[in-house]
Amino acid sequence: MTDVTEDLQTYLVVVNHEEQYSVWRSDRELPNGWNAVGSPAGRAECLARIEELWTDMRPLSVR
C-alpha cells in the first residue's frame, strides 16, 4: 500500500561533487555538498530521471 502523504510530496534530484545522485524532499534544505538538478517532481519521476542521468555508478574520483 502506498503512503498517501508520499504521493502528494514533491522531490528533487540532487547530485554531489562525485556525481552521485539521490532523491531529496523539496521542502527540506539541501544537505551540504549537494545541488539540485531540475525542478521538483514526484518521486517516481525523480527516480526515472536519476536512471537517465546516472549511467556510471562509480564515484567521479575513481573513473
Description of the structure:
There is one protein chain. This protein has 63 residues and is of the alpha+beta class. The protein has a single domain (4-56), classed as Rubredoxin-like. The chain has two helices and three strands, in the order H-E-E-E-H. A three-stranded antiparallel sheet has the order 2-1-3, covered by helices on one side. The chain starts with a helix and ends in a 10-residue tail after the last helix.
Topology:
Blueprint: H1 4-8, E1 11-16, E2 21-25, E3 34-41, H2 43-53
Concise account of the structure shown:
This protein is of the alpha+beta class and 63 residues long. It is 25% helix and 30% strand.
Indicate the CATH class: Alpha Beta
What is the SS-derived class? alpha+beta
Query: In percent terms, what proportion of residues is strand?
Result: 25-35%
Number of helices: 2
Domain unit count: 1
CATH architecture: Alpha-Beta Complex
List the strand order in the largest sheet.
2-1-3
CATH superfamily annotation: Structural Genomics, Unknown Function 30-nov-00 1gh9 Mol_id
Number of strands: 3
Cα separation of the termini: 40 Å
What composes the largest sheet?
3 strands, antiparallel
Spell the H/E element sequence: HEEEH
Pfam families: MbtH
Protein name: MbtH protein
Domain MbtH-like: 2-52
InterPro entries: MbtH-like_dom, MbtH-like_sf, MLP_fam
